[in-house]
Amino acid sequence: MDCIHLPTYSIHFGELPKLSHDGKVLIITNSKIAGLHLNKLLSHFSANEIYCICLQDGEEYKNFNSIETILEAAFNHRLNRNSLMIALGGGVIGDMVGFAAGIFMRGIPYLQIPTTLLSQVDSSVGGKTGINNRFGKNLIGLFNPPKAVYIDTYFLQTLPNREFSAGVAEIIKMAVCFDRDFFTFLQEANLEDTNILKEIIYRAVSIKAKVVLEDEREKGIRAALNYGHTFGHIIERLGNFSEFLHGEAVSIGMIMANTLALKLNLISNEEFTNIKNLLNKFHLPTHYKINNKEAFYSDFFLDKKSLDHKIKFILPNKIGAFVIKDNLPKELLLETLASFE
Ligand SMILES: NC(=O)c1ccc[n+]([C@@H]2O[C@H](COP(=O)([O-])OP(=O)(O)OC[C@H]3O[C@@H](n4cnc5c(N)ncnc54)[C@H](O)[C@@H]3O)[C@@H](O)[C@H]2O)c1
Ligand SMILES: [Zn+2]
């Protein structure tokens, strides 16, 4: 089994191994994933006592109520500082369990067993955890790395195609910002081939792990993981978080960022087309209609990353590198948005 070691935890690749814990364990999942995969986890895990709770499925349940449900279960079952929580699910479950584990009795360990492509390549690695509230997404949370992450492509067999593609968007994001060879590899790759899929996941996680190792608290290069997200978050919000999956909104967001990068001569027309073709290859959306560019522009300032009213844009600098721009003139941004009217 391949493994990537970070200073405080390891990321394991391959078939989920037999695991055990000397203490109580609380598995947190949702009703859908429980039906598909809880038995597999239970058959691979032994502990003094194992409890499971199923939250409701959906981003709309990534909130304080669900955190309370997790904490209630933890207290009801008398978990203590020697106990362990396990997140079995996508990014929603992973982010919530990381947060709940971080605040229960001032913090107990937890494992990430990501079951979506997005959570395998992105959200389960890096220690960002949290929930949404009415002011926005992921505004409440902690940096709280797991004890370990187990990435097994077996779980992806039941993932709907759209969810799979949404995960590919985050992989393309990493290739464009950090690794030209990986980008070229993706252009040729057939992800229906399990070995290729495994290699791609491993390469994407390696990039993410390297980035968070260098910059855990997002003071520098970790910001590059937000390529496509400054635009994407607005697209998600304008679609009431139901029209587009996160990865789909990020795909359109990357096209918008690339339109800006093209105007700044950071990428060529050919590179612009290559990125678009790669997104289309994986059935990701690349078209979008902006109804009101002034309104879209003012939405930039709702992002928690727009510190001091400066909007930070991550732009590709050719393929395989990036630049951060936080002082672009409003006229240029409106001109970019106008290309989508
Ligand atoms: N912490 C981070 O660094 C980070 C990074 C990126 C995204 N995120 C967060 O991750 C979340 C998105 O994660 P996601 O895309 O995994 O969404 P998700 O957790 O909502 O999962 C998507 C859907 O797939 C279902 N599902 C999960 N595993 C399945 C499987 N194996 N088979 C069939 N269905 C399955 C889920 O029940 C859900 O309906 C967002 O809340 C986002 O904010 C966090
Ligand atoms: Zn993302």
From TrEMBL:
Name this polypeptide is given: 3-dehydroquinate synthase
TM ranges: 84-105
Cofactors that this protein relies on: Zn(2+); Co(2+); NAD(+)
Annotated residues for binding of Zn(2+): 170, 229, 246
Main localization, broad class: cytoplasm
Function: Catalyzes the conversion of 3-deoxy-D-arabino-heptulosonate 7-phosphate (DAHP) to dehydroquinate (DHQ).
Organism domain of life: Bacteria
GO cellular component: cytoplasm
Domain 3-dehydroquinate synthase N-terminal: from-to ranges: 54-165
Sequence ranges assigned to domain 3-dehydroquinate synthase C-terminal in this UniProt record: 167-306
Keyword hit for Transmembrane: yes
Broad class of enzyme this protein falls into: lyase
Cell compartment(s), UniProt: Cytoplasm
Coiled-coil positions: none
Manner of cofactor binding, per the entry note: Binds 1 divalent metal cation per subunit. Can use either Co(2+) or Zn(2+).
Residues given in the record as NAD(+) binding sites: 57-62, 91-95, 115-116, 128, 137, 155-158
Listed Gene3D superfamilies: 3.40.50.1970, Dehydroquinate synthase-like - alpha domain
Primary gene name: aroB
UniProt GO BP: amino acid biosynthetic process; aromatic amino acid family biosynthetic process; chorismate biosynthetic process
EC number(s) per entry: 4.2.3.4
Annotated catalysed reactions: 7-phospho-2-dehydro-3-deoxy-D-arabino-heptonate = 3-dehydroquinate + phosphate
